[in-house]
Design brief:
The structure is a homodimer of 255-residue chains.
Chain A lengths: L14 H14 L12 H8 L3 H14 L2 E3 L5 E3 L4 H14 L4 H22 L2 H16 L4 H18 L3 H14 L1 H9 L3 H17 L3 H22 L7 H13 L1
Antiparallel strand pairs in A: 1-2
The structure holds a DNA duplex (30 and 30 nucleotides).
DNA sequence: TTTATCAGTTTGTCGGACAAAGTAGATTTG
DNA sequence: CAAATCTACTTTGTCCGACAAACTGATAAA
C-alpha cells in the first residue's frame, strides 16, 4: 500500500501529444465541427509555439485516429471518424490476437439476429428497396462465387442499416469483415451453397416486408448455420482467422 | 463506363505512409512478432533511406494504430493492439456520431445476454472466483455510488472474460464504455438502485455457478432493465451520449 | 557493495531549407 | 466582356543538421 502521495503526478507528455490532445479536445467537445478547417501547419506552429515537425507528428496521430483529414487541396479539416476505417483496425486486432472462427461465428450469429429483429421492426420502404435490389443482383450473379460473396456481405450491411441502430452497425462490422470473406470459399466448394444463400436472403427480405420477426430470426439463423456447416466441411471452426484475412484486407484497402 | 485502363494506378503515397505500411506489413504478416524490437529511429532511417522526420511521422501513425509502442526506455517494439485503446476510439466515434442511449441500450442488452450465455457454459473456477471477489467488493462499497459504478463496470468486463470469446469481449467494449458511466448517476439518484444492482449481480453469479442459463439470462435482462428504468427517470433514452462521455474518457486516459 | 562519474546512444525538439503542387490575382487573347 | 494563360505566393512533403534531456553501460570511488 503506497503512502498517500504528496505531489500530484506531473504531466510530462511530449509536445506532439499535447498538440494532438489540444486539437482533439476542440473537436470532441464540439467547438470545432466536422468539416471545419483547422488551419495551415504554419498557423498551428504559431498558435502552439512549437516547431512544424512537432505539429506534423501531432497531426499524424489525429489523422490516423480519424479526427482529422486533408481535403482535396490537402488542407486540414476536422471530420467524423468513419466506421469503416475503425472497423478495419479492429479486424486487424482480431487477426493478431488469433481469434478463431468459432468465436467469430458466435458473435456474428448474435449480432445478425439482433440486426434482423430491429430491421423487421424499423425497415423503411427505402431500406426494403435496397435489399430487394441487392437480392436481384445476387440472383444474377448466382454462378459467380466472388460476386455473390460480395453481394452477401452487402446484404448484411444493408440489413444492419435497416436496423437504424448505428451502434449495432458499428459493433457487427469488425466481425463481419472477417466472417464474410469466407463466403466465397464456401459458395464455391459446397454444392447448392449459392442457391441456399440466395433463398435465405429471399425469405429474410420477405419476413421483413411482412414484419414477421419470428420468420426473420429463423431464416437468419438458418442462413448462418448454413455458413457454419459449409465452413466445417472445409476447415475447423477452431482455426484462427489469420489466413483468410490478409488478401481481403489488401483488397479492401485498395478501393 | 470507363474504357479499360491502359496503365495501373500509380502509387503516390507519401513517404511516411509507405514507411508505416512497410512496418505494418511485417507485423501483421507475423514476420515481426509482438514484443520484438523494431530498431532505433536511426536504423529505420538507414533501412528506408528517408529522413528521420519522415520515419517519425510513420512511427506516430503506427503508434496510434496500436501496432507499435515504446518500451520502458522508449525503444520501439511491435505489440498487439490493445482492445481497450481501440474501444476508446470507437467510443469517441459513437459520441461524435451522436448516437442515443436507446441505440446503446439495445446493443448492450444483446451483447450482455450473449456474454452471460457463454459465461454460464464456460466460466472456469477462476472466472467465478474473480466474479465472487468483485461481488464482495460491491457489497462493501454499496453506499458509494462512484465505487459501486466502477465495480459494476468491472463485473461486466469479467463476465465477458468468462465467456472466453475474445470477439465478444471486444464487441461489447465500445458500447459498455459509454453505457456504464451512467451507472453512477443512476445509483445515486434512484432509491434502492444500489441494492438492486448488487442483488442482480449476486443472482447472476449464482446462475453461472449452477450453470443455469435461463436464470442467468433472466437476471441479466432484469439488471439492464433496471438500468433503463433508472435512466429514464433522469433523462430521455433518445438523448445523445455526448455529455456523459467527456469526463469519463478523461478519467480512463489518465490511468 | 553501493554510489558517483562519465562517455556514448537515442529520443524529442528545433531552425532552416527546397521542390512540387495548389491558389489566386494579374495579364493576355479571342 | 469572357476565357485562357501566366506569374507570384502559399502550403505541403521531405530533407539536413543541430542540441538538450534521458537512458545505457561501464568504470571509478567510497
Amino acid at each position: 500500500m503506497p503512502a498517500s502521495p504528496l505531489f500530484r503526478r506531473i504531466d510530462v507528455a511530449p509536445a506532439y501529444q499535447k498538440v494532438a490532445d489540444a486539437i482533439e479536445r476542440e473537436i470532441v467537445s464540439g467547438r470545432i465541427k466536422p468539416g471545419d478547417p483547422i488551419g495551415t501547419e504554419l498557423e498551428l506552429v504559431r498558435q502552439f509555439g512549437v516547431n512544424r515537425s512537432t505539429v506534423r507528428e501531432g497531426i499524424r496521430v489525429l489523422e490516423e485516429g480519424g479526427l482529422l483529414r486533408r481535403d482535396s487541396s490537402r488542407r486540414l479539416q476536422a471530420c467524423l471518424p468513419r466506421y469503416n476505417k475503425l472497423a478495419t483496425r479492429l479486424s486487424r486486432a482480431l487477426v493478431l490476437h488469433e481469434v478463431t472462427f468459432r468465436e467469430l461465428f458466435e458473435v456474428s450469429l448474435t449480432l445478425e439476429i439482433a440486426s434482423t429483429e430491429c430491421a423487421v421492426e424499423r425497415a423503411t420502404e427505402e431500406d426494403i428497396a435496397e435489399l430487394a435490389d441487392n437480392l436481384a443482383r445476387s440472383e444474377q450473379v448466382i454462378a459467380d462465387p466472388a460476386a455473390l460473396a460480395e453481394c452477401d456481405a452487402d446484404f448484411h450491411v444493408l440489413l444492419a442499416k435497416a436496423s437504424h441502430n448505428r451502434v449495432l452497425q458499428l459493433a457487427r462490422e469488425p466481425a463481419a469483415q472477417l466472417f464474410f470473406p469466407t463466403t466465397e470459399m464456401i459458395v464455391s466448394h459446397v454444392a447448392q451453397g449459392a442457391s441456399r444463400l440466395v433463398e435465405a436472403h429471399r425469405h429474410l427480405l420477405e419476413a421483413i416486408r411482412r414484419r414477421d420477426k419470428a420468420a426473420g430470426v429463423q431464416w437468419t439463423r438458418r442462413h448462418l448455420q448454413d455458413w457454419r456447416r459449409g465452413f466445417e466441411r472445409i476447415a475447423s471452426l477452431d482455426r484462427s482467422v489469420e489466413h483468410m484475412y490478409m488478401e481481403h484486407a489488401q483488397a479492401v484497402r485498395r478501393k
